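Figure 2 data, in text form.
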Amino acid sequence: MSERLYGCVEAGGTKFVVGIAAAPDDIRETIQFETRTPRETIGATLQWLKDAQVRHGPLAAIGIASFGPLELDRQAANWGHITATTKKGWSDTDFGAQIGRELGLPVGFDTDVNGAAIAESRWGAGRGKTVCVYVTIGTGIGGGAIIDGKPLYGLSHPEMGHIRLPRHPKDMDFPGICSFHGDCLEGLASGPAIKARWGVSLSDLPFDHPAHDIISWYLAQMVVTLQSIMEPGCIILGGGVTGTSGLLSRIRAKAGELGGGYFRGRADEVIVSPGLGDRAGLLGGLALAQDIVKAVDTP
């Protein structure tokens, strides 16, 4: 049987990364688009995937790891839609189903963080862990949990970015930017929330600026919450904000203090960077594409 090729889509609130891959270590081609309107961005994605099949050969499936919230129930009339999102203009967008119809291919569809979590669990920092969690801190904040190799779902996918936290004593007046909850985690510690307070990204602020302590404190609260609920073998922190120099060390130190020595997992060992680097999201699309092909092939 000839080698299978897959279309992979990492759909973020700021940019789309689209690629063709056969395996994690065999990515044939990628391209990046700015996330604009649904019509522009999905249209550009579809056209590139159609053209890529001319260059590389037919695809077996498409995997889409997308910002959300998403409708993941394949029995629902609006399966494959982005639902009530904070991304302006994207609520109720037909995404996954539209890609499948236009290309005539099976589509694996999940959140960007679930996709990255699956990829990290299989090929990256979460490999060999019974429970691992991937959290991205960037334009938004989201997280996915993998338990025994499978993503965690309830009525829908997890929304870890919208947990409620105590307020930092030096950050009591900022109302938060989440259009649904105000001062949830995303409303306080995402990239846009940082810029709303201090005018620039965290990495552009001096190392001794109080913002570093405030943001690391909020993210450490999140870590301790996740440890309390799941005691994961690793908590993988990705996204643009985590690229700030020294931030992971601050989070580890504060999470250790907040945990009080109670949890089996030591904060300085459990909190890690993505093993797949900036490929985690795109490889999440690959994992979703591979899984939908297996599901279709299984009688």
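Caption note: The radius of gyration is 19 Å.
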